[in-house]
Amino acid sequence: MPGAVTAVALALVIGALGAAGLVSAASTGAQPGPRPAQQDAGPQAGGQVAGAARRAGAGSGQASGSGLQAGAGSRADSAASMGTGSGAGQTGRAGAGSGPGAARGGHGAKAAASRDGATGGSGQAGAAGGDQAGAKPAARAAGGRRLRTSCRAVAHIGDSTSVGMVSAGYLPNPAQRLAAQYADVGVRHAWINASGGRSMVEVLPGQVNGYDVARQMAAAGFRGCWVIALGTNDTANVSVGSNVGRLARIQELLSVAHGAPVLWVNVKTLDPSGAWAETNMQLWNDALIQACRQYPNLRVFDWAAVAHDGWFISDGIHYTSAGYAARARLTARALARAFPSTGSSAGCLIR
Predict the structure, then answer these.
(1) Among candidate residues 44, 112, 125, the one with its CA nearest the CA of residue 79
(2) Is the pLDDT of residue 40 over 90?
(3) What are phi and psi of 122, to 5 degrees?
């Protein structure tokens, strides 16, 4: 699917995090699929800090991550790759690069000049208020029944709006992070790969785009459910001239799932104008609904409907600690509602 993009790139610094430890853990045993490691989010765009954070009660694998980069169509604060699971063991080592196919040229994407912007300190650890108080109880449905999913293995592919869900800087309590939330609804093995500025088509230097991450996971033998938290940068890129449209991007990534269950997290910003304006996010969300009519395996978590404005930091795109804690918790619960342990979900939108 050829295409070319000229995009305004904007790299944002995670608010006063410094070198925040991003969780990396891979499942133990002979489980298929990639075992990516992590990199810590550094304090400035273009920098690269390697490291590994330890998560209580979880093991980790090893592979590679990408450094912080400003590039095509990205309004990103960090880049990190990590894998998570429920096994026990040591943390993995940080790797160099993003694995094979880091610069996918098939779409003819072009990196654009970057501008650095500061977010302030609203995303610092400890800003979550009540959500930082401790571990949440097991996820419960409205009737008190515990939410459980039929998905035992999950591949989560995201952009910078997923990075904070695994960051010790934003979420010091491991029980609030995404891996623990997935485990709480019955996921046994999860591979989480999140990179700031990621889209499904364009690539940043040293980064793997969402489509190629999915292809690599599938080629490595991953079989399970997919959670895709991409689109914020994609719809921005389309708005500034990419000839790869919104629906085409969604279809391309869904082709990798080959009919396996897919939960797609839709998008929201508070931006009133520009490439990342909320009107462009709504166009992306409309395309996801359209895709639901073509793909019976697809469900859409309606994050745009449940996200509180108070969870956003001043850039209108990224979140406070409270926002990331809620995003992790609600994404896991949406997975359990979309693909429950018994029965089946009705309709496209999951709230």
Answers:
(1) 44
(2) no
(3) -70, -15
Cα 199 from Cα 34, distance rounded (Å): 20
Residue 209 and residue 237 in contact, taking contact as beta carbons nearer than 8 Å: no
**pLDDT of 290 above 50:** yes
Q: Considering the entire predicted model, what is its pTM?
A: 0.68
Rounded to an integer, the average pLDDT of 170-193 is 98
- 155 and 222 in contact (C-beta within 8 Å)? yes
Domain locations in the chain? 9-350
CA gap 128, 18 in Å, rounded: 18
Q: Is 323 helix (H, G, I), strand (E, B) or coil?
A: helix
pLDDT tens per residue across span 185-243: 999 999 999 999 999 999 999 999 999 999 999 999 999 999 999 999 999 999 999 99
- Whether the CB-CB separation of 52 and 37 falls below 8 Å is answered with yes
Is 112 in contact with 71 (CB distance < 8 Å)? yes
Place of tokens 């960090």: 78
Write the CB contacts of 142 (distance below 8 Å, at least 6 apart in sequence).
Answer: none
Which CATH number does the domain 9-350 belong to among 1.20.1340.10, 3.40.50.300, 3.40.50.1110, 2.60.120.590? 3.40.50.1110
The pair of structure tokens assigned to 8 is: 């305004």
- 153-158 and 189-194: which strand pairing? parallel
CB hemisphere CA count around 266 (13 angstroms): 29
Cα(62)–Cα(319) distance, integer angstroms: 28
- Which residue's entry shows tokens 């009919």? 259
More confident residue, 37 or 208: 208
Q: Give the Å distances, CA to CA, from 180 to 86, 199, 234, 250, 333.
A: 8, 26, 28, 28, 12
C-alpha distances in Å from residue 8, one per residue of 71, 110, 269, 300, 306: 8, 11, 17, 28, 29
Read off the pLDDT of residues 235-275 as tens digits, 9 standing for 90 and up: 999 999 999 999 999 999 999 999 999 999 999 999 999 99
